[in-house]
Amino acid sequence: MAGHLAALTADGGIPLLTRKIGDVKPLPFASVGTLNGVHLFSHLRGASLHSTTTKGAKAVWRSYHDSVVLLVVTNNDNSSDEHLNRLLDNVFAAMVMAVGLETLQTIHNVDRLKRELRVCYPVVDHLLCQLDQDACTLGDLTGVTDFILCTESQALQHYLDTFVEEVDSLYGCLLVRGKVAVATKQWMRLTREETTLLAIAARAGTRCISRETPVYLPTSCPLVSNRLVTLQLTQGVELCLLCGPAPSLPVLEEEVCRFWNEAFDLLKSATSVHPRNFPLCSTSDKKTVTLPPLDKNILGFLLINTKKQKSLTSVHPIEDEIGRTKDGKCVSLRKRQEMLRALYKLVSSTYFTTTPATDNTTGVAQNAGSSNHQATEVYMCTETHKNYALRNNDYQLYILFSSSIPTFAMRSVSHKTLKALTTNKVCVL
Questions:
Q1: Which residue ranges does the record assign to the FUZ/MON1/HPS1 second Longin domain (predicted)?
Q2: DSSP letter string over 233-255?
Q3: Mean pLDDT calculated for residue range 39-56
């Protein structure tokens, strides 16, 4: 993705923040003013301008609380208005996390607000970049929480619940490379937008062993700030806590060293699942985790549990990359992330839509059944790879295949993969 983002005051069009991503020139202030002027003109005439598309670009506007207008101009990369609106919603939520909703609803000092919003730049830049080769997360796009599956989850859950209770908090989670391994019940009751942004905030910016950041929860607590405490337990594993003024950060650092020392082997074992993000074959509490080896033609997949609002992403699903076919080896992990995002954008906005047909649908369309048809399986073939997507009541699965797989085999392989990933009793999404 390449493009520009601007946040402006709704009444005067004064820029609050501007960011760009990709190899593009900075958007001139005159262009920003013109785009905002078009939106304001429409609003004053009683119309709502949401988006416009040119031959090679798309612009989307979104207004919040009649005080802030967000504008994104991007290359036309199959992103629907729904996806770009979610991006803008996430950006505004990141702004709320930094300064609080009341500050954005009633802007008294623009210059001061600009300075205060700088703290959210790392999160906003991460949302715009959309690619994190180390973490490989898609929660900002899908709107559900990214998870990593490990056989140690039950033991780690016990450690987490006990520790959170000791430090007098209800909200805590363990992140393994930016993905949730385990979390407390109260943490999972936060909105998916909040859990996604908190995970990004825990990893964005300068890496350090421990830190605390004041945050507002955009939906759950937008007017009162909390402390987001991030403590690194081992390489790639962070403990995130939401708490009040006490206990202090030095006290938490001491408690972490004392309490989590016994869980070091469990944490180390959990990190070994990355970058595959799910176990292949191991044992836990005398129960065998039998996830059969996936087809060697699978380059990556995205599995979404629509009922629990959880997702599992992997662009390294095969343990031995040497055994992969030649055409599959040529596709880098970063490229696989890009292809997986493009696949989700296209399928979710075109084939797996949930928007009901409008009442004014023409009779021709109704007779054809095109407006009411809900696809359950989709496949696509390109010169470099092949795609397959399927959905049932609780799951959606998006798979990238190497081009060498026979087209007729994709359906059976996809169904076998879905069954393998969702029927295991010990480690399941």
A1: 168-260
A2: EETTEEEEEEE-S-S-HHHHHHH
A3: 82
